[in-house]
Every structure is written in structure tokens, then in C-alpha cells.
Amino acid sequence: MTDDDTHDGGPNGTDTDDHATDLRADGAGVDAEGADDVALDPWGSSTVSDYEKLFTEFGIESFDDVIDEVPNPHYLMRRAIIFGHRDYRRVLDAMRNDEPFAALSGFMPTGDPHIGHKMVFDEIIWHQEQGGDAYALIADLEAHSARGLSWAEIDEHARDYLLSLLALGFDPEEGELYRQSENREVQDLAFELGIEANFSEFEGIYGFDGETDVSHMQSVVTQMADILYPQLEEPKPTVIPVGPDQDPHVRFARDLASRVGYFRVTEAYASFEVDDDERALLADAYDALDTDDDTVRCEDAATWLAAQDAKDVPDPAGVRDDLEAKLASAGKEPLRPRVRFLDRNASEEAFEALIESVEGEKRVYDEHVDAFDLDRDEAEDLARDVAVAHGGYGFLPPSSIYHRFMTGLTGGKMSSSIPASHISLLDDPEDGYDKVKAATTGGRTSAEEQREKGGRPDQCPVYELYAYLLASDDDAFAERVYEECRNGERLCGDCKEQAAELMREFLEDHQEKRDEVEGLLEETDLTLESPRNR
């Protein structure tokens, strides 16, 4: 979840004819050397060389699917720099309906904040401007355990991150800033979440082994608590803006959010419990047999499944035989759609309150309740309300949005540990100017060839500077730079000179604003010097 010096370079997209009209990039672009296409390691240094694979490999959804639903979309969204999401519609619904929602991201202070981190700052600030509760945290426990930084180093870098965040527009009076090490509520929540996590999961998700220290594992559970922290007072849609390397944290947090709930809500068709594959097959059987005339019974569904076997209908999940036996055993029990409340962690009082709260026809069993007059969304809301009213958690699964990585100025990855690859938000403006002037481009070998064949903006770190930062909210300007490059009208020397001047102006302005918000930072309740440093 945290953004640190592992935010590697990545593609800005393929050279497509429609790029000029919507500034969107969705292909391969330049691959960093040694890039791993699909491995997502929150602490590694691999890049993502094909963002399309993330949709199929990890279930990340394309942001194209929701862009038309976003009120006043940020330019990072309009230009497809934010390229994917998980369950973001939940947040958008709250945003449009003026209902509570939140945005949170964390920053591991391992070096200077650089222009790659600015994307996440901007995403948090934009959600705050749309009316969301904004949270920004310093992941100092993670920096100390996973990176081995001293507390003195963490304090220095944390201050720099916070000043840049405030200078870019974060409102600390309307939002919340905190350090992991100073937030007792987060630490207590991490302890509770840890009860639901086990080492085999750390091994499978993160590749931890017998050599992984316990504090590193503890920092992961703390990050899960960070992600769910905005919902401690009340359940609300929460988005976590991250690079795709942080997706393992998001998926794990969504799983833990469900596990600590009092109830699990599923769809069901009979009194016995089934898994997801069996449930899908039951739905097929019911749809095939349901008529207005006769009650569908479990034994009817068993006969229907046997007929599918006789017809050699494929059973890719391999569940038909087991389900057929369950249905045959249930005999004449009616097969009817319903929602099921499964008792996961509920107290006796909470379970009784749930039973009382379910209106309409219901069936009560020892460890679950079946409701016939509620739909799935209504049941989820009811389960959450009962849990919160009786001292339990009512976490909604956290949502996420994913941005592309910036390519380093020297090609390959952008990393705080490679000074020439990035521009720090603390760089002297003249140094920022010089770094842009020295940057790798997507240009041809000569001016003549450039004029004849056109440049390659999709393979150019300098064009990325325009798209991600220097064009700011001016899509027409970013489009013009792209088209002039691709058509051979814009030569690399002039393009870099313009970008370098804009970078110098940006750094001058940003650093002036940093000076202006020094007092604002001092007025916050944040501990700027950790007592652990003593």
C-alpha cells in the first residue's frame, strides 16, 4: 500500500492512432530491463511491462469501465495514467450521492519524495476535494522493519513527504495525517486482524519464509489495519490509490475485512451449504427447472444434473457429482433462492438480534439464517448494521485504483536510489532543469529522420513528464506535444528545453509552497520526532 523507492519505470502505452483525441495509453511501451510481467511484489523492484495482463491475472478491472461515471475526473484519469480499479463504483456511488466515503494511502519514507510520488499525493487530494475523508500516513514501522532505516532517517524523510503533500493542497483540518508508530487504534486493529491471518498466507502472498523476521510480517498486518482504519468509526466506501505492485496488500485487506465480520452473506438455494462453484451450478439447475406451476425440489435438481452427465455436458470445476449427491440426500426439500446469513464471529446477542431484524419469511438454523424476502444488497446492509450495533466490525471491502509507473529519466525504473533516474521534489530547480535536459528520449537518430518518420512519444520519458506532470490539467497542451512529436514537427532538443523550463518552474513554485506550509505542519497533532529515536 505504501509508495516508496520501489516505484519502478513502466510503459506509457503503445503508439495508437486514437491517442491524439483522448490522450489514453493502454499498450506495452518501453519495458525496463529485467521486468517481470505479472509478479507483484510490494517490496521488490520489478516493473509491469504489460498492464493488460493485470486484468486477467489478478482481476483488476479497466478504469475505462468507470471513467464516464466519475464526476470531474482528474487528468490522471482522463489520460489513462490511472488505468485500473477494484470495486471503485462503490466509491463513485457515494461520491455522486453525497454520502460518506474515504481515500487513504501511505508513504514509506525511505528517501526524498519525487515526482512519481506526486501522483499519489494528487489522487488523495482530488478525493478530498470531491468531498471524501482523506487519510495520509507515514509507514514508519514498515520503513524500520522492511528497509532497516533508523528512526532519525525516518523522521527526516517523513517531514519532507508531509510538507510536499501539504504544499500540493492536502487540507489537514479536513483530513487526517498519522504515523503508524503513533496510532494506537491502528495498532490495536492490526492485533485483531492478525488473529485471522496465518503464516501460510504470508508465504503464499508475499513469499515469506523461515528467514523473514517477525517485525516485517507484523508490518504487513499493520498495513491491513491502515487500509481499514477509515472505517473504524463507521463503515463507508474507501479507496486506496496505489501502483499495481501494492495490489497484494489490497486483496489481502479485502479478505481480512470479510473474515473479521460477524456475518457472512451468501446466496443459497437449499438448507445445506455449498461452495461458490456448486452455487453457480445450483443456479443453473434452478433456472432450468423453475416454472410457475410446480415447486422445484432438490431431487428434481439431482435428476437434472444426472441428465447433464448423460449428455456429456462439460463440468470444468468438477463439482457435479458431489452436488448431485447432496441434492439427492435432501430429497423433496424445496429448492428456492434465498440469501443466507452465516454466523462467523457473532456474539449470541448479535445473532439473536439478526434473527429479529430479518423481516418476511425466514428459516433459522443453529449457525445460519435464511431470508426469502431480501436481496443480497439489503442483506449485506442488515448484517453490517447489526454487527456495528453490537460492537463488531462492519467493514466494506476496500476499493482501489491503480496508476501506471513513471519511467526513469535514464530509461528503466524510476527509483530514489538512482538519483539520475528521478527528479526529487526537493531538487534544486537548476538540477531539475539539467536532469530533464540529460534525459533519454524516444527520438530518432537524427533530426532528418525525426522529421521524416516522426518521434516515438509512447517510448519517451520526457513525454511522460508532460502527460504526468508538466501539462497539469491542460489536456490540449499534452495532446499538442504528443501530436507534434509523432508527426515529426517537434524535435527532441526543443522539446526537452521546454520540459526543462517547465520543470524548473514547477520545482520553484512547489518549494516556495513548501516553505509556506511549514507552520501548517507544525500546527498538526503529528509527532514529527519519534520518541523511538532517543
Automatic annotation (TrEMBL):
A motif ('KMSKS' region) lies at residues 413-417. The keyword Aminoacyl-tRNA synthetase applies. InterPro entries: aa-tRNA-synth_Ic, Rossmann-like_a/b/a_fold, Trp-tRNA-ligase, Tryptophan-tRNA-ligase_arc. Its main location: cytoplasm. Residues 16-25 have a biased composition (Basic and acidic residues). One of its GO terms (cellular component) is cytoplasm. It catalyses: tRNA(Trp) + L-tryptophan + ATP = L-tryptophyl-tRNA(Trp) + AMP + diphosphate + H(+). It is found in: Cytoplasm. Keywords: Aminoacyl-tRNA synthetase, ATP-binding, Cytoplasm, Ligase, Nucleotide-binding, Protein biosynthesis. One of its GO terms (molecular function) is tryptophan-tRNA ligase activity. One of its GO terms (biological process) is tryptophanyl-tRNA aminoacylation. A motif ('HIGH' region) lies at residues 109-117. Its EC number is 6.1.1.2. Residues 1-42, 512-534 are annotated as: Disordered. Catalyzes the attachment of tryptophan to tRNA(Trp). NCBIfam families: PRK12285.1-3, PRK12285.1-5. Belongs to the class-I aminoacyl-tRNA synthetase family. PANTHER family: TRYPTOPHAN--TRNA LIGASE, TRYPTOPHANYL-TRNA SYNTHETASE. This is Tryptophan--tRNA ligase. The gene is trpS.
